[in-house]
Amino acid sequence: MTLATATKRSANGASARRGADHGAWFLVLPALIPILVLSVGPLLYGITLAFTDSQSGRTEPTQWVGALNFQDLLHDTLFWDSFRIGLIWAFGVTVPQFFLALGLALLLNQPLRMRWLARALAIIPWAMPEVVVGIMWRLVYHPDAGVLNETLSNLGLGEGKDWLTGTATALFAVIVVGVWAGMPQTTVALLAGLQNTPRELHEAAAMDGAGAWRRFRTVTWPAIKPIALAITALNFIWNFNSFALVYVLTQGGPGGRTRLPMLFAYEEAFRYGQFGYAAAMGCVMVAVISVILAFYLVGRLKGGDES
Amino acid sequence: MMRTKKSTRAAQYTALAAYLVFLAFPFLWLISTAFKPARELGSLHPTWIPKDPTLENFRQAFDEQPLLQAAGNSLIAALSASLIAVVIATPMAYVMARHRNRVSKAATGWVVISQAFPFVLIIIPLFLILKNLHLINSLLGLIMVYVVWSLPFALWMLVGYVRAVPTELEEAAAVDGASKVRTFVSVVAPLLAPGIVATAMFAFITAWNEFFFALVLLKTPEKQTLPVILNRFIGSEGVADLGPLAAAAFLATIPSLVIFAIIQKRITGGMLAGAVKA
Fold first, then answer.
1. Nearest Cα residue in chain B from A294
2. Angle between helices A275-306 and A261-270 (to 10 degrees)
3. How far apart are CA B175 and CA B178, in angstroms?
4. How many Cα atoms sit within 13 Å of B268 on the Cβ side?
5. What is the CA radius of gyration of chain B?
6. Is residue A270 a contact partner of residue A43, using CB atoms and an 8 Å limit?
7. ABC transmembrane type-1 domain spans which residues (chain A) (predicted)?
8. Contact A230 B240 (CB under 8 A)
């Protein structure tokens, strides 16, 4: 097949771009091999591990156990707690993040002074290592030396709260950090969408007497909808799978109140050495994420039909 | 240009100010804490501006943990991974952007799906594989993981840059009888150079900032990268020496911030070119 296209190419230069020839393979292989060996392969290996009793440092050979890990997971209330926490966290971060980012993007799209500063600042959380973001907010939340409690007590709004270790506040406190940390990407994506919106449409709508909300609904939103859907779906998935931020902030505490699924799986695998069981958790997470992705793709296809 | 009411403008500026405060205050607090002497950090009423600013925390941070070595490890890992990633990703991105064959379709699908992997499903098998290769606690093993981990995004960005290159030049080269590889190397790659640099810098930052894989794969402090060493400052009980912790965290951010400032515009463009068209 490739030979045929290669010979045809010399006769007709333009057709060469369409078919794959040997050259195309040479260009693809350097990336394809590492992807297959270090990503696709391990992923399949990981899925098979979920059906074994693989453990770290065990002397007897690993055995197939069928769906046993999944049956155990079904009855593992700690896992379902973490799953529930993961969903609350993912919703709790993604939704406010989207609205805040949309607001900021709309502002940055206006001819306001100081918006360069907001743009520059909005990049900071993005460029920082998540570990630093976690450390930074630990300093903000610190019961004595933190700025939050000091400010609240100056405003007469109670004092000495232990945000990250209090069972009532911990999840809320980490969600706020999640919103802060993820806002830049969302803002930048939405802003780019806004800047692709033709100004004339806005002006025409304004001439027709459309108010701000109408203009947003009929001109702005349709223009940024594809990006908004994509970034929201990705944010949800990234948040559901996140690890470093909450690991640094609370290590999953207090009493598992912020133990996201990834933290749980990490502990199961690398603290208790239960590779097979942790792999099964990973599979369940993939299944859930696939459902979300499917919803997103369906939504995106529908959106495509409208336009 | 539309006229905007004065009251609307006032509301907009108020909102912008609120955003500025929300975005800036944790970072300002980090800097403030980094320069505070221990006794100010122990006081119950911390202030924004250190009364008695000191560099003592920075000195102590270097004493407490092998920060320089960790920064060196991070640099080696991030630099190698980003260079390897763009060298192997660029040709593939070219094929993905210009050819609609099975390989490029599968690769595009993989780029999208890989965004959804929970890393735990990848890291357990990788851990076992690298262990068999005696590459646990080795930067080489980590670099291999980083290369593959940064590939999807690198491909995504690069495909966008390739699409921005007009096809006429390539067609002319093909008519002249240049092979695909030859066309790519001498016609397309030079035009892509700015995009390749931006992609490499982005891959560098992601690797420089990465924590999870490094935490799992690197066991001893001599091998660990900066984020893992930073995490060591927070003891297992969560009790930390706040000043040195803040100082070290502040230092670890500077390289990424500088690079990000340089490539900010390009990232936005490249990312969206990929995101919108994919």
1. B113
2. 150
3. 7
4. 20
5. 23
6. no
7. 83-296
8. no
Answer whether A42 sits within 8 Å of B125, measured CB to CB: yes
Taking the C-alpha atoms of residue A103 and residue A93, their distance in angstroms, rounded to an integer, is: 16
Chain A CB contacts of B29 under 8 Å are 136, 139-140, 146-147
Q: Looking at the predicted structure, is the pLDDT value of residue A156 above 60?
A: yes
Residue A56 — pLDDT band, cuts 50, 70, 90? confident
Which chain A residue shows the shortest CA-CA distance from B11?
Answer: A107
B234-272 confidence digits (pLDDT tens): 876 656 688 999 999 999 999 888 888 887 666 555 455
Cα–Cα distance between A295 and A40 in angstroms, integer? Answer: 24
Look at the block and give the residue holding tokens 């609205």: A99
Looking at beta carbons, which residues of chain B come within 8 Å of A58? none
Q: Is B242 in contact with A139 (Cβ distance < 8 A)?
A: yes
To the nearest whole Å, the CA of B123 is away from the closest chain A CA by: 8
Tokens of B3: 């006229």
Cα B267 to Cα B273: distance, rounded to the nearest angstrom? 10
| Contact check, Cβ <8 Å, A103/B19 | yes
Higher pLDDT, A81 or A8: A81
**pLDDT one-digit tens code per residue, B163-202:** 888 888 888 888 888 888 888 888 888 889 988 998 999 8
- In order, the DSSP letters of B47-63 are -SS-SS--SHHHHHHHH
Q: Is A252 left (phi over 0), alpha (psi -120 to 50) or beta?
A: left
Please give the Cα distance from A275 to A82 (Å, whole number): 18
A211-256 pLDDT, tens per residue?
788 888 888 888 888 888 888 888 998 999 999 999 999 998 898 9
Q: Are B271 and B195 in contact (CB under 8 A)?
A: no
Nearest-5° Cα angle at B96, B91 to B97? 100
* Long-range contacts of the stretch A199-204 (C-beta < 8 A, 24+): A202/B2, A203/B2
Q: Check B257 against A121: CB less than 8 A apart.
A: no
User: Which residues of chain B neighbour A13 with C-beta distances below 8 Å?
Assistant: 171, 174-177
User: What crossing angle do the helices spanning A170-195 and A221-240 adopt, rounded to 10°?
Assistant: 150
For an interface test with A, the pick among B83, B120, B150 (most A C-beta atoms closer than 10 Å) comes out as: B120
For residue B118, give both structure tokens. Answer: 């929970």
Which tokens is B161 given? Answer: 């840059």
- Name the nearest CA neighbour of A257 among A187, A189, A162, A115: A162
Shortest CA distance from B272: residue in chain A: A189
**Yes or no, beta carbons of B227 and A202 under 8 Å apart:** no
CA-to-CA separations, A118 to A113, A115, A191, B22, B95, in angstroms, rounded: 10, 5, 13, 10, 38
How far apart (Å, rounded) are the C-alpha atoms in residues A167 and B273? Answer: 44
